[in-house]
Specification:
Radius of gyration: 31 Å
Shape: elongated
Low-confidence stretches: 318-324
Distance between the termini: 50 Å
Structural class: alpha+beta
Strand content: 5-15%
Mean pLDDT: 79
Number of helices: 15
Largest sheet: 4 strands, antiparallel
Helix content: over 70%
Length: about 450
Amino acid sequence: MNKKTINYYWNVLKRLGYRPLLVTVVVISILEFLLAYSLNYFVQLLQQVSMTTFAIAAVVLSAVGVVIGVLHRHVKIKEGILSLKLENQLTDEIIDYSNKNIVEQNPNYDSGSWLSLCNSDAPLISQALSVTLTDFFAGLTSFSAAFVFGMIVSPLLTIIVLLLGLTSMIIPKYTGKLILKNQQKRQQDQDSMQTILLQLFNAKVLLYTMKAQKFAEKMFANKYNKFTQSQLENARNEHLVGSVSVGTGFVFDVTILIISLVFVAKSKITIGQFMGFNVLNSNFLWIFYTMPSLYSQLLRGRVSSQRIFQLLRQNDKTAQNTVSKVPAKEIVMKDIGYHYPNSSKQVLNDVTVNWRVDNFAKILITGPSGVGKSTLLDLLLGFKRPSIGEAYYLDENNKQLQPSQIRLSYVPQQVKLFNLSLKENILLGRRVNKKKYSNIEAG
């Protein structure tokens, strides 16, 4: 995730009141540390002072425990509210952009992408940022509190715990890339399925007229099966990570308990300190039981965050390009050449034009398919930049202007085709022998 994406979502979260939630999480970690550290003195009170003083200390420690529990509940409630607010905001923006036809005009998005972004990506990234990221930060701060406690009480025992904990880092390292790859494929398959669904809806009259309902059902079923397979594979990998984490954590838990009892028996730590380690045991175990699962969820959210941010960034660019104030009076191209980034073949070569654009003027660009008519229009509109040469507009004062500075309207070509081959679009599921199909091609 790049810096611009992170800054965008962080600013959104700040507007929704995310920072107080993080402060609460830090307070919880500090209280947990103080509770664990006080247990050693609590045990000493049992041996040195009256039962009244001991009872007061017990009430105070119990009150701290209650406060910690209340704050945990508060965090969970706020996480849920924040997730809903973020999802609503992202969904509203996506729908707003789709109403402006930005998705349809963007070649990187299928026409059904906005449905996937609203129904899948927005809830996923909202959950990841509001809940998963907060839980990850909470676990990290709690683990830090446990680490500080351990280094104060028994550095040797803490080092042993950390050495055992290092093995937990192997789990997300070897599974993270797999989860990321599967999540990207899942979202792409969902985009394709949503696009087919919209296309079927728009072409329902055509399908009914051509009696191609079974073809439509088969096509949608095929896309849906691919999506469910991707979803199943993604869930399988996540459950594998969780299962391995829990199993390893159980072994870790038992091992640490045995080692701690040995330290007590050898008088390396007191009973109170042992109790403190047990209070913070879940904080140490966080890297085993919870961290790998949270990490995989953040990876899934990363895919959705990038998909949504790309759409929002595309909208910002489109909005900038549509701030049109000056009418163009002349179109100028000087020695224009253009080739696509992954090809050395020149689509346009040494193109020079100087067109006067009067009111109600019409300019017709003709030529065989593939000679670069669409590319020429993309250069005029500013969608592409020439590889060599320059293209610009002149206003009535002969001032040189870029496409984003002039009054431009663009009517794109719209087609009612499915995301299939040309042959499949022509046949719509009908069986035609090779001879008849050859006649169709010849026609």
